[in-house]
Amino acid sequence: MTGTATRPAADQPQAAPTGGPTGAGDLLALDPAAQDLLFRAARTANTFTDEPVTDAQVRAIHDLVRYGPTALNAQPLRILLLRSPAARARLLPHVSRGNRAKTAAAPLVAVLAADVDFHERLPELFPHQPRARDWLGDRAERVAQARFNATLQIGYLVVGVRAAGLAAGPMAGFDPVGVRQEFFPDGRHEVLLLMNIGRPGPHAWHDRLPRLDAAEVITTL
User: CA-to-CA distance for 108 and 88, rounded, in angstroms?
Assistant: First the structure.
């Protein structure tokens, strides 16, 4: 990770209140500053500076988040990084109008896809079950498994980007079929999400929206 990776943005938002009892943060093993960096103060950025996101930063993020669990340890997420103007120009026609300008200006854009033939790697990734590859002969089942587990990995990736002191801007406002045909014509990938990545720029944040309280989410039987 580069030495600038954890420098806060000039307009870094303040941490949101926990919404729980006083001192609830003390019940977590993660120190309060890290809690804020990853969750409370972290936001989805809509503007970015022109500071580049380096390959070394991307590798460091991946080396951190690759330990997140997936079923059968399948790890179906595939990440296509668009750096060049030519690659960005291929993407933009498939991006919704509201997302186009910020995607054109972001230092790095990631196309996040699920490899539906992930089962080919199971002999390597799940070696204690030699027949695991054969369990997934049905393509429709593989697609469902790939999409679900790659989506889990995208959640880990968002937190990893924040851990690098950067901001993630995940977007579903695009034409996934068009992006798949443009960048994954082999037919083995399902495009799930686009993500702008970089250091947040001026006026990067909208007002924080409400979050549900634990009592509204958690039921105990």
Answer: 9
